[in-house]
Design brief:
Blueprint (H helix, E strand, L loop, with lengths): L8 E2 L10 H11 L11 H21 L6 E4 L2 H20 L3 E5 L4 H14 L2 E5 L9 H8 L5 E5 L13 H11 L3 E4 L11 H4 L3 E5 L10 E5 L14 H4 L7 H39 L3 E3 L10 E6 L4 H10 L2 E2 L15 H5 L4 H4 L3 E4 L6 H21 L1
Bound molecules: pyridoxal-5'-phosphate (PLP).
Pyridoxal-5'-phosphate binds next to helix 3.
């Protein structure tokens, strides 16, 4: 190893996280000698089945859910797809309800799926607006739900992946409960940062993903409250109570459960620490350059998240310059990078197409240090000044 090589300053934990060593240690036996298929009757299969059961029980307990309410999936995208498609189609078949409600700042896994259900499956779709900080208004939700009889499913995320704004999920959950409307939330960015008790949140379905919480990629879960109408979206196997076919990813699931337990155990202390670092970053950047605007809600925001827009900034040029300086940041969501499209989230928040295309997101994590934050502030400001001069 070249000891003089500077360490990468990774500020893109909202895109993905490294696997924690404890998580990897938990997974390895199931990739090697414990490789059995959890559906097999022999000892190797039973060993895998026991590990699967334990992971399901542990994750359920962390969410205050029942083990039978946890469906393992391949990640957040699949969980969001399963929730919208599975619940909307089953509830329509059961009651005739045909209306899907979501918000303009959802991840594309929700927005594109809702659009598809409208365009190809005949559902009516309402995409709720947000205010300038990215917040959905509870009154708007109440108005569009009405008596709830025509609502097939409503999906509003816990926290936004681009700007970090946290939605009033418990208040929306209470509304949905009263109206008898199935309520799904995408909690992919909130896991490990906010408490995720499904009863307190008042949700019927919730998506989580392993790789955002120092677990492996390609594994996630959908919490599905008992009794919520649901049609399986992956058929052909009796796994997951016949709600999601396919041989279970036992090493991934075991790692995911360990990652969630670790995140929960560290959550309170880590979030206080990361919030201080985030505030140091926001304060330092804004003090150094008044043209930099923080996006998202000033208070109702994820503790590890800081996103900025700067008038006239070439976001891609900034990301490349930061990368050359050894700093990994993002232009918003990982999924939008390379597409050069102004962020749909910032557009929905009322930013112009130009400002919406200038977004730079720093998301902090377990390994972020105060020293790294000082380097990020310094480099970001220097590059900004240089780019201004060159323009
Ligand atoms: N939902 C949100 C809010 C996300 O941030 C992401 C990932 O960027 C996803 C869903 C997709 O999760 P996955 O990468 O596990 O498919």
């Amino acid at each position: 190893m070249n000891r003089s090589a500077p360490r990468l300053i990774y500020c893109d934990y909202a895109a993905t996280t490294p696997i924690a060593s404890e998580v990897l240690a938990e997974m390895l036996p199931y990739l090697q000698e414990g490789y059995g298929n959890a559906s097999s009757l022999h000892a190797a299969g039973r060993r895998a089945a026991v590990a699967l059961q334990k992971a399901r029980r542990d994750l359920a307990a962390l969410l205050s859910a029942a083990p039978g309410e946890i469906l393992f999936t391949s990640g957040g995208t699949e969980s969001d797809n399963a929730a919208l498609r599975g619940i909307a189609s089953a509830r329509r078949a059961q009651t005739g309800a045909n209306h899907i409600i979501t918000s303009a700042v959802e991840h594309k896994a929700v927005l594109a799926t809702a659009g598809e259900l409208r365009d190809h499956y005949g559902f009516e779709l309402t995409v709720l607006p947000v205010d300038h900080t990215g917040l959905v208004r509870v009154n708007d939700v109440a108005a569009v739900i009405g008596d709830g009889s025509d609502v097939a499913v409503i999906s509003i995320m816990v926290a936004n992946n681009e700007v970090g704004t946290i939605q009033p999920i418990s208040a929306i959950g209470a509304l949905c409960r009263r109206a008898g409307v199935p309520f799904h939330t995408d909690a992919v960015q909130a896991a490990g940062k906010l408490p995720l008790n499904v009863a307190t949140l008042g949700v019927d379905a919730m998506s989580l993903s392993g790789h955002k919480i120092y677990g492996p990629k390609g594994v996630g879960l959908l919490y599905l409250r008992r009794g919520v109408p649901f049609w399986p979206q992956i058929t052909g196997g009796s796994q997951e109570g016949s709600r999601r076919g396919g041989t279970e990813n036992v090493p991934g699931i075991v790692g995911f459960a360990r990652a969630m337990a670790l995140s929960e155990a560290q959550r309170e202390g880590e979030m206080v620490r990361q919030q201080q670092l985030r505030d140091r970053l926001i304060g330092g950047v804004r003090e150094g350059n008044e043209a930099v605007q923080l996006t998202g809600d000033a208070v109702q925001r994820l503790p590890n998240h800081a996103s900025f827009v700067v008038d006239g900034l070439d976001a891609e040029g900034m990301l490349i310059a930061l990368d050359l300086a050894g700093i990994a940041a993002s232009s918003g969501s990982a999924c939008s990078s390379g597409s050069q499209q102004p962020s749909h989230v910032l557009r929905a928040m009322g930013y112009s197409p130009e400002l919406s295309a200038s977004a730079i997101r720093f998301s902090l994590g377990r390994d972020t240090t105060p020293h790294e934050i000082d380097i990020v502030i310094d480099q970001f400001l220097q590059i900004l000044a240089r780019m201004r001069q060159d323009a």
